[in-house]
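Supplementary Note 3. Input sequence used for the single-chain structure prediction.
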Amino acid sequence: MAINSRHRASVVAQGKINPNTPFNDEELNYFRQLILERKAAALEEIERLEKYLAAGNEEGSTDSAYSYHMADAGTDTMHLDYVYIQIERQKSLIGYLDRALERIKNKTYGVCRVTGSPIPRERLEAIPHTEISVEAKMQENRR
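The predicted structure, written as discrete structure tokens, is reproduced below.
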């Protein structure tokens, strides 16, 4: 549960929460767990994709280069490229998630790096690694 700005100012003045984040320690722990779950899922996906590549390499090594049509080889290559791209996307996501964990540790999580305003909890639940609010994202897309 995020707190409204008037209540937040009062709570900050009392020293109950860090003024750099709109969330208390319990809420930050919730987001930490959410991020760790997403990171574990990304690591599992990388492992699954790498196993797929390894299995494909083992099967492909016994086939002759002449055993199928060039178009088939092109399709296979395109599919492998897609798998490598998916692996890189998961690795990139892990980097974003690690940076979000660092912001939680520093108690700066949930603050838009563009506007400085709090990012709504709903947005962070959908995209827990985000660093910007919807408003900032819309401004970014207009450029």
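The domain at 5-142 is CATH 1.20.120.910 (Four Helix Bundle (Hemerythrin (Met), subunit A)). Residues 1-18 have pLDDT under 50 and may be disordered.
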